[in-house]
Design a protein that fits this description.
The chain is an all-alpha fold. The protein has 2 domains: 70 residues; 39 residues. The protein is 73% helix and 0% strand. It is built from 3 helices and no strands. It is elongated and about 145 Å long.
């Protein structure tokens, strides 16, 4: 009987130990949660202080800009021109005529300068040092 009583007591104590372990685990989880919340509060407080400082700096800057603008006065009102300043149509016309004339005169000279083909039998003799075997006469209508 005493043995049975001791067994029951051991069983009861085991249950008590399990309950206490679950409470300890729950307390550990709550402690972790409290630590995380404390860190978050500290971070948010730092962010708030930074935001408040920046807001105050912005207010000070805005006030200093208002004071600087108070010293400005308008000397003369702006005049609206009657004719546009650019493009000057007459000047553009003269420049385009000159550019067109130079392009029309310069293009054939440039094309002739860049053409390296052999056109005459004498060119073949002079440049290649070869005899000309056959030539085709120029056909005129």
């Amino acid at each position: 009987m005493e043995f049975e009583a001791l067994k029951n007591k051991a069983k009861f104590l085991g249950q008590q130990i399990e309950k206490l372990q679950t409470k300890v685990n729950l307390l550990n989880q709550q402690e972790k949660t409290i630590d995380e919340l404390t860190r978050e509060v500290r971070l948010l407080r730092n962010n708030y202080m930074l935001y408040a400082a920046k807001t105050e700096n912005a207010k000070i800057h805005r006030a200093s800009l208002k004071q600087d603008l108070a010293n400005v006065s308008i000397a003369d009102k702006a005049n609206i021109p009657l004719e546009p300043d650019f493009p000057n149509r007459l000047l553009m016309l003269i420049i385009s005529i000159f550019v067109g004339i130079f392009a029309a005169i310069g293009t054939p000279f440039l094309l002739e300068f860049l053409d390296h083909s052999l056109k005459l039998p004498e060119d073949v003799k002079d440049y290649l040092a070869l005899p000309v075997l056959c030539t085709f006469p120029l056909i005129k209508d």
